[in-house]
Protein: Propionyl-CoA synthetase
Amino acid sequence: MDYRSTTERSIRDPEGFWLEAAEAIDWDVAPTAAVDASNAPLYRWFADGMLNTCYNALDRHVIAGRGDTTALIYDSPVVGAKKSYTYSALLEKVAQFAGVLADAGVSVGDRVVIYMPMMPQAVVAMLACARLGAVHSVVFGGFAAKELAARLDDAEPSVIVTASGGIEPSRVVEYLPTIVTALELSRGTVRTVIVKDRPEVPGSARELEGAAGVDWWDWDEAAGAATPHDPVPVRATDPLYILYTSGTTGAPKGVVRDNGGHAVAMAWSMRNIYDVHPGDVMWTASDVGWVVGHSYIVYGPLIAGATTVLYEGKPVGTPDAGAFWRVVSDYRVKVLFTAPTALRAIRKVDPHAALADQYDLGSLDALFLAGERLDPETWTWATALLDKPVVDHWWQTETGWAICASPRGIEELPLRAGSPSFPVPGFQVEIVDEHGHQQHPLTEGNIVIRLPLPPGTLSTLWRGDDRYVHSYLSAFPGFYLTGDSGYFDREGYLYVMGRTDDIINVAGHRLSTGSMEQVLAQHPAVAECAVIGVADQLKGQKPVGYVVLKSGSTPVESELAAELVAMVRDQIGAVAAFRDVVVVSALPKTRSGKILRKTMRQIVDGEDYVIPPTIEDTQAIQVIVDSMARG
Ligand code: COA
Ligand code: AMP
Structure:
């Protein structure tokens, strides 16, 4: 079937379409129905089915006689390690660690927070939770203690799994002091912290005995004493994981992914979008702390019976801008998936990709990019370099897999610079204006998706059905609001132009400007502030803070800036990459007090802008223009 007929079938007969897709999964109890609309607008998938996600990712491949196939390749230029795990070996480690979690009292539905760098134990911990029917919540290592504490308070885990730390090119990041501070800041549901000791980073479970009122277990000792645990069947609708993502307010949103719909979507997307099959090698150069890592470092490739690469390093500097090409050639990678920022970083250092000539990239079928807008220059550069399809695809933490893509496993569609191509079968994407009226081609508007969303997309927000409905489903009844704006061209290609809210995307990392503003506002000299995401050649966007001082406050500007930068780093984390502060005498606002952040961003980015008629004081626009002139 081609793209058009597959899409038509997914719309005409979603029950038949998705029940057929569900046959790619091994069920303990096979579902008899696909979508359950009894609680609309909250939909559930495969509601009477039962399965275990870990069984589908590991056991069934071993049972099918593929135990000797490589499941996971770990490559870490930062610690100088390379290691492969067969499906049998990975299963053994996961079953053993599931035994450790069971010894710590974890069972079906319990939450486990995982705060780990890109090491194999992070994957083991995620799959071990899935094996027990427990719910993992992975927190990216670049977040500071306060952000971690906010997630502990919301998810209420009984166990944290961590490591002594991670290695960034410029420094060693010690995790254990962050864990202790987060435990002290949080409400205290955690009973046990399990620590994988890394020789490269100081700190261990033993040294922390008694700290923060919890038990500290050493990973290896606990694994030595544990009995391997069998997979526990759960309902398809039971949560597999919670993944926190930035909302428009400071409070992160806990996106809930179910077991059944997720497994089906992963299996379907591996074949039909990425064209990756058992034995193929897929390398997703992201982090397990992000949705891209959940879906296509861990679950997608393993559910498909493919080989996944876990790379602990950067695109440049570990050791050079040839690192990506080395990994592709060393492991015969068929599909590489990364963020546009990574390519821009490589291009900046090695504009003609001279380092790529040293490696054999013949195994590569396609490069997939997502996480932020793919600018046409980078697309053109990568296409010329690789002479292979460079596939932009658009998705979000909430959807868990691509909303728009060129589904290579179905049909090779012509690609267009600047567009993530067409809606993936299962997603009915429309563009509407602020009144919900459908827009004509080439007219920009809100990108919305008709309900129900396909399997594998968020089922709700953690303990937040109302927040889910309020944030995503109430603006345009019957549709999911993506928060992105864009348009279709006449041939149906989608163009995603940017967010309609206060979320920014820095180096493919989704951040809330609202949470940065909350931090800046705490400074005693700051009367009011606005953080906006301005265009950045490398990272796509970078946050810049505009602050108005309290009257009578006369701090030295450079000292104030350093204090504010340190506060954001301390309270949100290094990942916020907040480095720029501009002191201004006023912020442009509407008469109702809403700061005109979009207009500010347009001024700073040199775009055309319209001064809204509701502006309180037009002079404030000049203030921003003048601040640009000051550099
Ligand atoms: N743990 C701790 N700190 C981390 C971290 C982690 N896992 N990841 C990033 N950081 C830190 C960095 O060390 C840096 O700290 P610094 O201010 O002390 O230098 C800070 O967070 C900002 O990081 P980043 O924005 O990534 O910038 P960078 O200059 O270190 O690296 C790139 C630039 C382009 C190499 C890097 O951003 C990159 O590889 N991007 C790819 C994006 C990606 O994979 N996104 C995933 C979504 S698909
Ligand atoms: P995240 O939830 O971190 O995956 O971020 C999702 C957001 O990143 C989307 O809502 C978009 O704003 C942006 N994004 C992701 N992929 C793309 C893409 N291919 N093109 C444009 N924007 C993208």
Notes: The mean pLDDT is 96. The radius of gyration is 24 Å. DSSP finds 18 helices and 32 strands in the chain. The first helix runs from residue 3 to 12.
